[in-house]
Amino acid sequence: MKKLSLALALALAVTCVLLAQDKVDEATSAKIRSEELEHSQIMHTIHMLADRYGPRVTGTPNHEAAVDWVIAETTRWGMKNAHKEGWDFNRAGWLNERAWGFINAPVHENLKFEVLGWTPSTNGTATGSAVQIEAPHGPPAPPPSADDAAAAGGRGRGGRGGGRGGPQFQGPTQAEMDTWIAATKDKVRGKIVMVGKAAVIPVDFNEPAKRRPDDQVKAQYENPNGGGRGRGGAGGGGGRGRGGQGDTGRLSAQQVASQIDKMLIDNGALVRMNDAARAMGIIVAQQHAGYDVTNTIPVVILRNDDYGRIERLLADGDEVKLEFTIVNHTYPEGKTSYDVVAEIPGSDKADEIVMLGGHLDSWHSATGATDNGIGSSIMLEAARLIQSMGLKPRRTVRVALWSGEEEGLLGSLAYVKEHFGTAENPKPEFAKLDCYFNVDTGTGRLRGASIFGPPEAAATLRGVFALFSDWGLFGVSPTTSRMTGGTDSTSFNNAGLPGIGFQQDPIEYNSLTHHTNLDTYERIIPEDVKQASAEVAAAVWQVANRDQMIPRFTKDAMPAPVVAR
Ligand SMILES: [Zn+2]
């Protein structure tokens, strides 16, 4: 009890100090809180997005059905102007329909695997013996720089083996690769081919904490002008290939991968198996490079346990007989994909827009609940709260859910380009966007945020966030980075617009659910996501009613543009 009242007193003290910076609507915030706790619909929303429409892969009927549901649902809530906006994905959509696989000898067992995205079906049922090959990898790479280490996270793609923290290599020369292909190609005909050694994943005795301690989060945001590295702050995410650039004259991981693909196609291999290289049956199956099913044979990502077992059986000298049946579909109509938006019209400042959103698309091996069905649901719920409570914002509130995020922020980049342009080459709407709020790191409580802009921009949010310090929301830091990466708020930062990326408690995001076969409804924490919805609604309400828009960089202070990657 004592602890509680002390925390409350502290929160009040902080609030008083901050009132000087930005007047906050405490009464409405309190109502938003109780409305969400008493009448939340967020678990219904995530149920629909995950269970009924998941996986929502860009360019697929699943994703489009989710888009249509969002239009119908937001309209039912009373929101206006709900519609989808097409953008050029320029690839067919892809989904696995069914897949099964077995060891038929020397034992009988089901195999646990996921199909790699944008790979072809088997020709009926493929049966054959397992063979294991390992491409030359060249000498060890020099240790990665600190930046590369921070961005790490891409794993096992292209079958270079090695799980998290596995050794990195400089890659083979073309001559080494030619010699290897000549010696290997006759071994793969009619076979089911394991590419690379099984990773050895030791037991983790130091599992990362699921929640960040309050004092650590507070300290992060205490220095208001820096340090906040939430998602959508400085770069982050999407590690690729090996660290540090080695000798020139060596092949990249991508070059090696495409030469292996060609060898397997040309020499009649049946199915390729990659090691998932994660413990606990976790499988990450993203896309085959190039998004073209004609460039590869069927590929599965086998759980590490099955991959290791087959490797050990082969080492015994046994013939290991396997069987796979895989049915995939491509959707040419998916070359146009869709973002979806809906609005609560503003009053006296209706031509100015406060946006909130996240990406609706997902990977295919689970239902995309934590990435990012729940971020989408939080934003929909925040908008629904404002709408259903009959609140009349001065500015127009626009919720937007993107596609193509997983393939490189494509939907949000297309939207920003179409509507806003850039600070250097603005369209008329550029001056009318107040800011864009984004959530995309799983189910954890919101702990703080970063905003692209000067320190005064961050100050506008501090007051309203302080009303939620009892729920662990502690601050906001300005960022000057226009790099894209991580998530869709950086598409706005990239243009020079005030993108706001929330930072969350990690829960099981990096350890279990991010892009994995375990990303399901069951991993959502209802209490956390209800709190997040109320916090976002209160922040949007605050921004939508200020006399001024959020301060931006002046022309002179605007950081130099960065090419979106
Ligand atoms: Zn995501």
Structure description:
The chain is an alpha/beta fold. The chain has helices at residues 2-19, 26-39, 42-52, 61-76, 146-151, 174-184, 214-222, 253-266, 304-315, 369-388, 410-419, 455-466, 489-495, 509-513, 526-545, and strands at residues 80-88, 93-105, 109-110, 113-115, 125-133, 192-195, 271-275, 299-302, 321-331, 336-344, 349-359, 395-402, 433-438, 446-452, 476-479, 499-504. The strands form two sheets. It has an eight-stranded mixed β-sheet, sandwiched between helices. An eight-stranded mixed β-sheet has the order 3-2-9-5-6-7-8-4, with helices on one face. A hairpin with a 3-residue loop joins strand 2 (93-105) and strand 3. Helix 2 (26-39) packs antiparallel against helix 15, helix 3 (42-52) packs antiparallel against helix 10 and helix 11 (410-419) runs parallel beside helix 13. The longest helix is centred in the last third of the chain and has 20 residues, at 369-388. It is elongated. The structure holds zinc ion. Zinc ion is lined by residues 359, 371-372, 405, 440, 487.
